[in-house]
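dumping this here before i forget
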Amino acid sequence: MNNDLFKNAIALTGGISTGKSTVCSLFKLHGFLTIDADKIAHKLLDKNSHKIEKMFGAQYVENGKVLRKELGKIIFSNEDNKLKLEALLHPLIKEEIIKESKVFEEANKPYFIDIPLFFEKMHYPIPKSLVIYTPKDIQVQRLMKRDNISKEEAKLKISNQMDIEKKKELADLIIDNSKDLKHLQKEVEKIIREII
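structure:
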């Protein structure tokens, strides 16, 4: 793989509902470019909806769009389904991320690639990582509120990912999102001073 490919890239990651998208928005406000792996995945899901239909059944697709919530139910609870979906999507996501970052590299300044499963399995040779950190109990509460689900469901979703404490240990940079937005903005500004 081309070494210059992700030279200026910083992988932005964290756990489910630790505040990645909020942090991404804040970086954008400061003029940073970001690539969002989830958005790319959603686009690719719809683009490949016929394949999803073949793999999992017609009930997961409507008018050429994948019903992500419905599909999520059989993905989160079944390892085989999860692996099947990943085998289809991950290479396509990677291709798209590489395409976008080639464009961003030309500017020769730091940019962020939001990859939720960066440490788990995405295998990107990105030299630097930034973890958006929230202690697990806050993570559970935010997820319950966000998805309107029970504590058990929230814990199950979170357990699908590597423990946030472990991610924190692996990170080059950390943003603490355990307090309010004002505190988060300060954390973001601190990181910007470190990377420019």
